[in-house]
Write a structure and sequence with these properties.
The protein has 12 helices and 9 strands. With about 300 residues, the chain is of the alpha/beta class. The protein has a 7-stranded parallel β-sheet with strand order 4-1-9-8-7-6-5.
Length: about 300
């Protein structure tokens, strides 16, 4: 069954298993991981995001990641990241996703330089020509371009975006966005403000930690979305020492370590990412082992 709005629900920004001397993608294990996430209660996957280390992939690898995900779980459950330095390249990635059968794509603003509003509009206009629904990704910490509620409302009014992955961690933006663009879907972008943004009206979660703990994360999402705080808050408190790693520079390494500990295909990262420091590894390991001992999966 085709999902009417395939960007909604728990959409996991998938980590990519890498191995061998050249750290090549293991596509068979990746396909199995995508299927496992959906079987574990998640609604879909977001390949080729930062967690998938897309910046280090060749064009051939990046294409095959999307095709693998679609073959594994169906295109209406796949929302690839299509970020690129140029709008023309980003549009080509949107076209590739469209042709592979994906139901939506996720797009950062221009990130090769500090773009002004005029450049942001032209960027999204160009990519929208591919004809696939676009979820904007607001991450001003990394891109230095802030998609403010006012700017997002204008992009939505022009029909260029259907939603936004909000990564600032500023919950106040949810209320302003609902006032300015009530038809624009808000997706949680930071694992550690999940409950706060769901209570503020978010309708989806582009999530990191379900890579290791899909069942518990899906249960947390469902409870918080339903306003069942008696169920959500104890679970949120248990998971939060891990969820907050999603907002740290070392989030890929941390989530992959948690995956390893949970018996999932985590493994190493490609350079320039380096392994966690001993102190960081100890903190992630202790927090992961604690939730696994509590029976959270």
């Amino acid at each position: 069954m085709t999902r009417e709005k395939p960007w909604r629900g728990v959409m996991v920004a998938t980590a990519l298993p890498l191995g061998g001397e050249d750290l090549a993608p293991d596509f068979a294990r990746y396909a199995e991981h995508c299927r496992w996430l959906v079987a574990g209660g998640c609604d879909g996957v977001v390949p080729n995001g930062s967690l998938g280390e897309y910046q280090t992939l060749t064009a051939e690898e990046r294409t095959r990641v999307v095709e693998t995900a679609v073959e594994a779980v169906g295109g209406d459950r796949v929302m690839p990241g299509i970020a690129a330095y140029g709008a023309l390249e980003a549009r080509r990635w949107a076209e590739q996703a469209r042709d592979a059968g994906c139901g939506a794509v996720m797009l950062l603003p221009p990130n090769a330089y500090r773009a002004d509003e005029r450049a942001v509009f032209e960027h999204y206009r160009e990519v929208a020509r591919a004809g696939v629904p676009i979820v904007a990704y607001n991450n001003p910490l990394d891109t230095k371009v802030d998609l403010t509620p006012r700017l997002l409302a204008r992009l939505h009014e022009e029909g260029l975006i259907v939603g936004v992955k909000e990564f600032t961690g500023d919950v106040r933006r949810a209320y302003e966005l609902a006032e300015l663009a009530p038809g624009l879907d808000l997706l949680v972008g930071s694992d550690d403000v999940l409950v706060e943004l769901l209570l503020a009206g978010a309708v989806g979660w582009v999530a990191g930690y379900p890579n290791a703990l899909p069942h518990s994360c899906a249960a947390l999402y469902s409870a918080a979305a339903a306003g069942d705080l008696a169920t959500a808050l104890p679970l949120y408190r248990s998971l939060h020492p891990l969820l907050r790693w999603d907002s740290k520079t070392e989030f890929v390494q941390a989530i992959k370590l948690s995956m390893d500990l949970a018996g999932r295909p985590g493994g190493p990262c490609r350079p320039p990412r380096t392994p966690l420091t001993p102190e960081q590894e100890a903190a992630v390991r202790a927090a992961t082992e604690k939730v696994l001992a509590e029976g959270l999966r």
